[in-house]
Structures are given as structure tokens and as C-alpha cells.
Design brief:
The chain is an alpha+beta fold. It has a domain of 271 residues: PPM-type phosphatase domain (Phosphatase 2c, domain 1, 4-Layer Sandwich). The strands form 4 sheets. Strands 2, 3, 4, 5, 6, 10 and 13 form a 7-stranded antiparallel β-sheet that branches. The chain has a 5-stranded antiparallel β-sheet with strand order 1-12-11-7-8. A 3-stranded antiparallel β-sheet has the order 14-15-16. Helix 1 runs antiparallel to helix 2 and helix 6 runs antiparallel to helix 7.
Length: 438
């Protein structure tokens, strides 16, 4: 018997440190998607909304689920790129997109960026997608460890997104499903706050998808909520009583009302989907655990504060800003708990990271500490040696070396950065402190 969506749940939250929600999602069985926008002046919100809207009118003309999802992503990419080209205030805007479609006994996925898809089966959580990010590329090359990847200062740099380029490479694949399988799609606002084993623990102890989704969002907020958090989940069963199209909804951050999704309509859809189940409050950490975490953070800050302050005034390193440009930073390339950054942007040069010769790109990602004179000298040398790629070369690049920025920086430019990284990678992009670009 074919599998159907027996239960679904969804939730999107601005987080604790953002003023706007640039995430969007689509949840209308049998198709689900999460998009995480990036770009200034609300451009990220626009990009993710376009991606989510692209599913609504999309008619399927007999193609396979993978081809169908890929076509939607490509159409969304064209629309976002066109808007960015016609409006200078939205130049460079983009969005991640991870989508899923249930058909027969398979779930097909299409993926661009660092939003993720997970499978929960038999009490174990498995990540199905691979992030397209600079940090993941470095990890795959063995240049950094898994632990270093989790806290890397440029973990927000994604190497592939919808919008920055006229064409985009979309990863697609299908997965054989079983009755009882639970799939989770989420933006990196979840995965940069809580680790996979914690996600698994929350799902395992939850009595319903609604409870699990709510608990995941609350856990990310309790850890700091540095970015927008969006989670979409669905469970499959061999049953004729599957969730129909009318039981889903598309939520588009602050633009939900513009898309015809008022708060009342969203609540009504959620109530229908819950079918009268009582919401169970998500488990919260005990007081002593909370106190221990606060004390640990205080000790770390106290121990490093003085040295970090004076050190940050004396050293410099090269990196990539949110526009993909080679940039000089002052300070230490680290971020303390609670989003405290030890660096700030000094200035950028008009050179995209993707145009830096390959043998010199290490200087943009290794973050070696330098004196100001040494750093400025290296910056001048890079600017002199930069090679501007041809249009043909950029189009033929295997990994869409787009630099897409996730996360806004703190005032002074010291936030998370993103740039052209030359080639496709994979990883979790975290947001630095400041407004959400992701």
C-alpha cells in the first residue's frame, strides 16, 4: 500500500536576536519546503517568499518527483535573480531551499544551501542532505575537524543558493520510506543552536509532531535564538486517512498576511491538523542546569575578557564580508557564547573572493593573525593579483561559486560573513549576532 502523510506540523519563529523573520516554508501535503533568505533591506524575506510561492501554482506534467522539485527550484532561482537584477537595493539577495515530495513508497528531495532534511526512523536521526557551505568544504578536505566546523568564525558562508547567479545546481535524490518514518525540514536557525543528538532526544520524548516541533523551536531559543528558526515535520503511514492539501499552509514570515495567510488562518489550519490533541508543554531544563550554564558562560567571559579585549585591538586577519568581498578585520576570529564577537570589519576591497587565485584563497579562510601593516600589504597584493572570472567560466563552474551571506553583522561589520567561495561545499551556516540575513 502506498505511504501517505498521516501527520504534519510546522512552526516558524523570529528568534531572540532578530527583528524580522526571513524564513519561509511550504507545507501542503504531499509537498513540503523550507527556505531561508539572505540579503539586506528585507531582501532575504523577499527571496524566501518567492521560493515558497513557487510551489503554489506549480503544475506537474508527468515528470518524476525529483524533476518536479528541481524545476520548481530553477524557476524560483530565475525569479529571485531577475528581481535582484532589476532592483539595486536587493542586489545579491538569495535563499536556501530544501524541499520534499512524498509519492508511493519514496520521498524525493531537492536541496540548495544549508537548510537541512532529517529522517527519524527506529529511534535514530539521520541527516539526509549535505550543506553547501565553505566550512563543510574545508571539513571534507580534512583541513578542519568536525568540532572546529561547529564553531568556525565563517560557518555562515554558503557556496550555493537560489538567486545570486542566473543558473543554479540543485541536488536531488529519492529515499525509500517506511511506515512510521518521520521527516524534518529545518533552517539553520535550529541546527546552529542545538546539535543532532539533542534534536533526536527531543523527537524521541515527544508524544506528537506538534509537541516535537514546538520543543525544537523553544530549545533553539533557549540556547540564544541567534537566527530565525523554522521547522516542518511530517510522518508517513500506510493509511487512507492522510493529510490533504487543505490541511497545510504556507507561512512567509512578516509577509504572511500579504500572501493571504493571516494569523487566524494559520491558527485554524493548525487546529484542524492537530485534530483536537492537547498541546503538551515542552520539557524545560531544570533550574540547576540553567544556573550551571549561566555560570559557565560567566567564567568563560571573565577568563577571556581582558585578554580578548586587548588582543582584539592589536591583531588583524583577512576574511570575506557579507557581500563576498575580501575584507580586513580587526580582532580575534572568534565568537564567544551569547553571540559576543571578538572582531570587527575595518574595510573591504572591491575584489570578490571568487576572483582571488586559488593558491591565495587560504589567506581568506585560515584567519592567520597579522600586524596591521602585514595585513594591509597582503590585501593590496591580493587586489593587484585578482582575476575577474569570465561569464562563461562562472556559468560552467561545477558548484555555483556564488557567495551567499547568511546573517547580518553587528554594527561595524563584525557579523557573520559570506562570499564567493569558488565551488560547492556543504555545512551548517550559523548566524552571527545582528539582524538575520539568513
Amino acid at each position: 500500500m502506498p505511504l501517505g502523510v498521516a501527520e504534519q506540523a510546522f512552526r516558524s519563529d523570529t528568534g531572540r536576536q532578530r527583528t524580522a523573520n526571513e524564513d519561509s516554508f511550504y507545507a501542503r501535503a504531499p509537498v513540503f519546503a523550507v527556505a531561508d533568505g539572505m540579503g539586506g533591506a528585507q531582501a532575504g524575506e523577499v527571496a524566501s517568499r518567492i521560493a515558497a510561492d513557487s510551489f503554489e501554482p506549480a503544475e506537474r506534467k508527468g515528470e518524476s518527483p525529483e524533476a518536479y522539485l528541481r524545476a520548481i527550484a530553477e524557476v524560483a532561482n530565475e525569479r529571485i535573480h531577475s528581481v535582484a537584477q532589476s532592483d539595486s537595493s536587493r542586489s545579491g539577495m538569495g535563499t536556501t531551499l530544501t524541499s520534499a515530495m512524498v509519492e508511493g513508497d519514496e520521498v524525493s528531495l531537492a536541496h540548495v544551501g544549508d537548510s537541512r532534511a532529517y529522517l527519524w526512523r527506529d529511534g535514530r536521526l539521520r541527516m539526509l542532505t549535505s550543506d553547501h557551505s565553505l566550512v563543510e568544504e574545508l571539513r571534507r578536505q580534512g583541513r578542519i575537524s568536525d568540532e572546529q566546523a561547529q564553531d568556525h568564525p565563517q560557518r555562515s558562508i554558503i557556496t550555493r543558493a537560489l538567486g545570486p547567479e542566473a543558473e543554479v545546481e540543485v541536488d536531488t535524490f529519492s529515499f525509500s520510506a517506511r511506515p512510521g518514518d518521520l521527516f524534518v525540514l529545518c533552517s539553520d536557525g535550529l541546527t546552529t543552536m542545538i546539535k543532532d543528538d539533542e534534536i533526536a532526544a527531543i523527537i524521541g520524548r515527544s508524544e506528537s509532531l506538534d509537541e516535537a516541533v514546538r520543543a525544537l523551536v523553544e530549545a533553539a531559543n533557549e540556547r540564544g535564538g541567534r537566527d530565525n528558526i523554522t521547522v516542518v515535520a511530517f510522518r508517513l503511514e500506510e493509511t487512507d486517512e492522510v493529510v490533504g492539501a487543505d490541511d497545510g499552509a504556507t507561512l512567509i514570515g512578516p509577509s504572511a498576511e500579504d500572501a493571504g495567510l493571516t494569523a487566524d488562518r494559520v491558527r485554524e489550519a493548525a487546529e484542524r491538523q492537530r485534530r483536537g490533541r492537547e498541546l503538551v508543554a515542552a520539557q524545560r531544563p531544570s533550574r540547576w542546569r540553567t544556573a550551571a550554564k549561566v555560570l559557565l558562560v560567566a567564567l568563560i567571559i571573565a577568563g577571556l575578557g581582558v585578554a580578548a579585549y586587548f588582543g582584539a585591538r592589536q591583531v588583524y586577519f583577512l576574511g570575506i564580508d557579507e557581500g563576498g568581498r575580501v575584507t580586513l578585520y580587526r580582532g580575534l576570529p572568534y565568537e564567544l557564547p551569547l553571540g559576543v564577537e571578538l572582531y570587527s570589519e575595518v574595510y573591504s576591497i572591491p575584489v570578490q573572493a571568487g576572483s582571488v587565485p586559488e593558491d591565495r584563497r587560504d589567506s581568506l579562510t585560515d584567519h592567520d593573525l597579522r600586524s596591521r601593516d602585514d595585513a594591509v600589504s597582503l590585501l593590496d597584493s591580493i587586489e593587484a593579483d585578482a582575476v575577474v572570472p569570465t561569464a562563461a567560466g562562472a556559468a560552467s563552474s561545477g558548484g555555483q561559486a556564488g557567495g551567499a551571506a547568511e546573517g547580518g553583522g553587528s554594527e561595524g561589520g563584525g557579523g557573520s560573513t559570506a562570499g564567493q567561495a569558488g565551488g560547492a561545499g556543504t555545512s551548517a551556516g550559523a548566524q552571527g549576532g545582528g539582524g538575520n540575513g539568513n
